[in-house]
Task: structure prediction
Amino acid sequence: MKKISLWLFMTALMPAILSAQDSKERNVWSPFEYFAGSWQGRETGRAGIGKGSRTYEFIMGGQYLYARNQSVFEPQGKKAERETHEDWTFFSYDKYRETFIVRQFNVEGFVNHFVLDSLSHDQKTFVFVTESSENAPPGLRARLRVQIKNENEFAESFELAPPDQDFAPMLQNYWKRKKD
Result:
């Protein structure tokens, strides 16, 4: 009788348990919902001064956050032409590691595989560091820092570190949400 009662009790609780798990999985993306939409940016760094456009959208039933970026940098120094950079970035949540992973595919042939290193308590500062980079020199590390300034602006920095050296700034970006 006790086994039947326990089984009935567990059976009755199962929908609530599953619903709580679904709710937790849906909410895992809440720090990233801010980014959904279209953005325009000002960029400065080793590539020069540029302008960018970027979109973020949740894809595949909300399982991933996809960002598409294009940046155009003005000619500088001996370069007579503009430099155009494109990247496609996919954010995913690794439920076993309980962290976010970022895979960034760059037009230059680099594929950066970042992991979330830290997220501030107020969920306004994200720091990602590379676990690996395809087509990059061995031991080169990258760090991406994103800081939400207000409801329509965020800043972003990209840094590189050769083996046994500290991170150095490569690119500073300032993004504003596009008005519809």
